[in-house]
Amino acid sequence: MKILVGYKRVVDFNVRIQVKPDGSGVVTDGVKLSANPFDDIALEEALRLREKGIATEVIVATIAPADAQAHLRNGLAMGANRAIHVVTSDAIQPLTAARVLLKLIEKEQPQIVLLGKQAIDDDCNQTGQMLAALWNRPQATFASKVEINGGLARVTREVDAGLETIEVDLPAVITTDLRLNEPRFIKLPDIMKAKAKPLETLQLADLGVESGDHLKTTNYAPPAKRSKGVMVKDAAELVAALKTKGLL
Amino acid sequence: MSKVLIIAEHLHGKLNSSTARCVTCAKDLKAASVDVLVLADAPDGIAAEAAKIDGVSKVLTGANAANAHALAAVYAPQVVAIAQNGYTHVLAPSTTFGKDLAPRVAALLGVAQVSDIMSVADAHTFTRPIYAGNAIVTVTAPADKVLVATVRTASYAAAGTSANAAPIEALNVAVELPTHTRFVELAEGKSDRPDLQSASRVVSGGRGVGSAENFAVIFKLADKLGAAVGASRAAVDAGYVPSDLQVGQTGKIIAPQLYMAIGISGAIQHLTGIKDAGTIVAINKDAEAPIFEIADIGLVGDLFKLIPEIEQALG
User: Fold this and answer.
1) What is the model's pTM?
2) Which residues of A touch B185 (CB under 8 A)?
3) Is A125 on the interface with B (CB under 8 A)?
4) Is B63 an 8 Å CB contact of chain A?
């Protein structure tokens, strides 16, 4: 069984995002880029399924500019068997990403596609669901537990009401939530080994995907700031302040 | 003029307040009509609740045993079939229900989706947060296509109730439904406390609470205040409380009138979940904790000493 993992490169979660003064974007020059944390979790889950003997091959794929090869090498160093780099210099929106991933599915015929539930840059939380729709296959989003049994996946999902378990026929799309697993650290020897692993490059333009910006972003603004409040010295003063505000 | 279709969220035969929040957002679209769609196995009671929301033109119901649980793969083709009856906008709440369903609907319609609408500029232009709310973008969707979007529930108050109930229309949605996705079970956090996403007061605990046992002090204070209980990711990851209590970028985004952050340092991902709260109170032993940068009222000290004192001062 093959598993395809979506592996997006994003601004590292520790970077403090700054909006450019002219509102044209956020500052990305010189900031640290890393794998989307949810995608690291997706890759880790795929690797564990391979280690259990359920999966035979794990493929990491990204849709990114030409300089994203090092990023894919990280995925290979973590343990993926091979990588696919769909090259584009355009910013890709979720519907286009889903259409590209569908092309890779047609090519690779995976039984499971594992994606992060959202990318921490655009916070869209759409690609997995869109891909499942286009593929006409099940989706199991926000997974905190995945069990594969033959042609079935039993997935526990983190939903607002608690933990929901669903069963889906494979092939299917599974998107990961935070507590599915803790991704492993990459070891130095694996970085060396990753250099020899296959990395296939495809041009987005050659895939025949209907592309283009579906949504136009016209302005970036910093969020409204909450002003720093007051400090109180003890519990009595706190309760008095809340009463003054009419909150108690 | 816009014709809006809102997908109702419900559980155990009760309408979720997120639906009435979507109605408030829909009003900003200056729509000609705002219809609510209730897909359920037994939708009548839920539809009656939805019909009372002020601003709703009509409630549509799709009764089907297959709709007993909100499976996106089952709901989506039905929403698509109904949306094609001249609707210009399809809205769902930005809850796990809406986040799961709306993109599947959008992709079937071949359109992009706007996630987490914070404000409406015009019928196709919206603001939404990116980078955990550290930037707010203005996005415009093509005006010649159906607009599918999720509504950031913390940005909109729930619409009130109307004296005149909207008409309810039962639909026969004749589309083939997949059987490849099946509900197994829902393990709910059992609680008599207010619902975290709609409560006017929330008391949250973080890593500083120290253990699952110690979280009893948070629950006790919450009960004294009639508040819902929340938690930071650190507290959930450490196993102090279940995941449905998590507040933040990847948990629940909430806007209570009063939010008390206790033993929470205030990681940026947590702050994004609470920045619409009316008043934020922070209690932390570390005076340098980032939570104090955004708190309206801060108190430095040991939470285990301070909470009993607060309870005493509350009388």
Assistant:
1) 0.95
2) 164-165
3) yes
4) no
